[in-house]
Design goal:
Blueprint lengths: L34 H8 L9 E5 L5 H4 L5 H17 L3 E5 L1 H5 L4 H7 L15 H16 L2 E5 L3 E3 L7 H4 L8 E2 L15 E5 H17 L9 H7 L7 E2 L3 E3 H4 L18 E3 L2 H6 L11 H16 L79
Parallel strand pairs: 1-2, 1-3, 5-7, 8-9
Antiparallel strand pairs: 3-6, 4-9, 5-6
Amino acid sequence: MVEEEPIAPQEQEQQEDIIITEAQNPLAIGAEQSQVDLDSILAPPGDGSKPVMNTFFQYITPDKKQTGMSDTADNALLDLWKAKWTEAGWEPRVLNLQHAQAHPDYTAYEKELDKIPMMGVDGKGGNIVYNKLCFLRWLAMAAVGGGWMSDYDVFPLEADPSAEQDMIMPREGNFSVYSVVKDSGGLAGIPCLMSGRSDEWTRMAHTILENGIDHAEHETMWSDMFALIDLRKAQAYGTKDAVVEGQDVLVSHAWTTQDCELTHGKYAVHFSHEAMFKGHLEEGETTEDRPLVIQRFYSRWTPSCEGGSEIGSGRESGSGIGRRVGARFGETITEEVPRSRFGETIMEESRFGETITEERPESRFGETIMEENRFGETVTEELP
């Protein structure tokens, strides 16, 4: 664990000194994509008989990665993510930068990202490319027609989306977020499981962009998650507390039916980087072992909690999503957002497998806000 010193005011001015040439910038568009290429990129997966669950993953070179996850571990986690969502009845699809570049707003949007403070907690801007990708994934979702998206470390609980009502996006496709900040009254969303129509993804992409630009004067680091949380005050989206944090299910004792209450009514589990630190792991296990840790969870959870109620019985049992349990993807979403302070801990595990910790005394979100270290280390930053 590494604790960084607070950023000196003069270091906050270094962003303008960082120059990334087009040859070095993986976000720059190369040869113009042909219509055939676009049709192939944007074509829906499968035969259309299953709902699609998307995730976003763009390879980052090791010098810009700093995630605490090797390429091998990333690939293993992606493979497991695809396997588990397939088992749950979904068609998994992995989006990347090409999908974002297919959006007609990409060129202008990517240039505007330079106006958002992304210097990171060290004040040096070493992860600007990563932070831009966090914003660009919203365009990727719009480009493929919208729908559902989860981070690649968000894994489904019991699910049977075969019924027609389960394939329809909640709230008529209005933007919805299914993971919320603790102690926010279920109002502040974390962008690890979301849904919306294509136009809603475009709307939210531009809304978080504008929010980030608005914070350029007083911040040195602003992420898509910070923007999403801040936008709770504008009632920009609906929320539902439907994702359980991984550390809550990584228990040290043998899993029992009583533990099913931990996942009851939840859609998915977020096995974040923070969960690997706060949850129970076997001796010697690290973030690199997330695929193994997740598989072990399923081996304990499934026999105790899955399939606890009959289809159509109306009896809630076990946990998760779908026809056999009480919680469905189409349930009512909370939309009322009071103008009140909240918070203590804010955590997001990114779709790239990284984490970051920030302390923000006197933050506009509440007393002290912490974001779990998305670059694999513990860091502290005090901002005015």
